[in-house]
Amino acid sequence: MLRPVSLYTRLMVAVATVTAVGVLSLVFWNSHSETKRLRQMLRADALVLCANLAETLAHQLVVEDYAGAETFMLRSMRLPNMVRFQLCDPGGQLLVDVQQGADGQGLVSHDLQRLVPPAGQSPQSSYSDNRGIIWQPITAGSLLGWLRVEFSLDDVIQMRTAIWQQGLLLGVGLVLGICLLVMALIRTPAVGIRQLAAFARELPSHKGESIAVFRGITELEELGSSLNHASIELARIDRELMELNRTLQNRVDEEVARSREKDVLLLQQARYQTLGDLLVNIAHHWRQPLNAVGAMIQEQAWQIVNNELAPGEAIARSDEIMGLLQQLSHSLEGFRQLCQPANSATSFLPSQAVSEALSIVREGFRLQGIELRQELRAERPVYGPRQDLVQALLNLLNNARDALHAQRIANGLIAVQIALRGSDTVLIMVADNGGGIPPEVQTTLFDPYVTTKFRAQGVGLGLFVVRQLVEQRFYGIVEATNSDEGAVFTLAIPVHTGGAYDAG
């Protein structure tokens, strides 16, 4: 990972790199072009020299004066840059071989080997290492032989070395000069950037303060103005946050109070909504006993008029009528307690609440052709307001009844089962055979004002109230699933104290 470096260093490295690359490219181009030019010039001079030598050697080859040719070539060795002369016949057989010795004088080699002359009869040139080679044909009407000349390219190498040395010196000078110029140009902006950076680091502890804006460079002016604006905005936001923190608790308390009032209103609205159902259940619950009391009274009056009622039988009929009236009085007290606000929490068995809820709706459901079943597998006491659990169960029972009516189920069945999950949770399951919960409302089933009924039949608060009562009063949860026959609503309530109560 690259470590952060200063602006000075980055600019110096960039400038030095660009300058060095530029200078090296210029030196390379100059060296290449000058080397090529000098090499071509030396080749042209060597070609002229070889042509002159070939004219002289042509006569000596005609008369086969090889000693004269050797002497002529030794004298020619004194010419500049000449390294070696070789004379051969058209087949490549070496006739004379003269090369430059260590003292600069020509030496004759007696190792006359065979050469490979080029094809054709025109001059040929090539380069090998630091030497140039020219093959010059010797003709006199026909090809008499070949003159092979080697000349030195040391001048070319020296010139190329000198160009590189001068270029490197120039490059070093340019790099140093440009670096000094860049340092002079960026010194003042760098100082300004450091000051702005220091101001930015200390901004949290100096909110609202300003720094002098650096003039002369547009970017630094904009950066300084932005930092000053940020400082002012931070001070303003800090004041707003302090004011918000000061009033936050009051706002939270107000919102919590509003939320509680809203929950109370929703629960009260749900109670009013179920009041009609309760009145219907009361009517169903009282109709048969009242009819029986009326019939008994009429029968006793007729028997009294006809002197057919014995005193003992009159007392028995009176006791039977009072029993029916006491039963109605007890049921009325149960309805009255259910309509009152929740009483204090107590420890009770879930089966008590289930039995109370079933007793309220049993007669009305029977007249509607709905069978109620209660199954107690195991239970333990729970803690909370019992009438709230009764109301939650009544809401579930009424929902199940409405589902059976909506699906036109001929033999409607609602089963309430009490069981344990583990040793710390009581399960109260209300199941029906009404077809189940529609998929489109499963995710919002317990939200307020969500209903699958027509508006004239419900406002969607029943299941919302069930969840509120179970979660807030009993610290439990409500689950809704579908079975093969219909919906299953499960109330999972934590136990309070005491041992298990088995169904047996």
Describe this structure in words.
Helices cover 56% and strands 18% of the residues. The protein is of the alpha+beta class and 504 residues long. Among the domains are: 7-168, 2-Layer Sandwich (Beta-Lactamase); 345-504, Heat Shock Protein 90, CATH 3.30.565.10. The strands form 4 sheets. It has a 6-stranded antiparallel beta sheet. A 5-stranded mixed beta sheet has the order 8-11-12-14-13. Strands 7-10 form a two-stranded antiparallel sheet. The two termini are 76 Å apart.
Note the total helix count. 8
Order of helices and strands: HHEEEEEEHHHEHEEEHEEHEEE
Q: What integer value in Å does the Rg equal?
A: 60 Å
Mean pLDDT: 79
Instruction: Tell me the structural class.
Output: alpha+beta
Low-confidence stretches: 454-459
Helix content: 55-70%
What name is given to the CATH topology of the domain at 7-168? Beta-Lactamase
Strand arrangement, largest sheet? Answer: 3-2-1-6-5-4
Largest sheet features: 6 strands, antiparallel
General form: elongated
How many runs of DSSP E, i.e. beta strands?
15
Distance between the termini: 76 Å
CATH architecture of the domain at 7-168: 2-Layer Sandwich
| CATH superfamily annotation of the domain at 7-168 | PAS domain
The CATH class designation of the domain at 7-168 is Alpha Beta
Q: Classify the beta-strand content into a percent band.
A: 15-25%
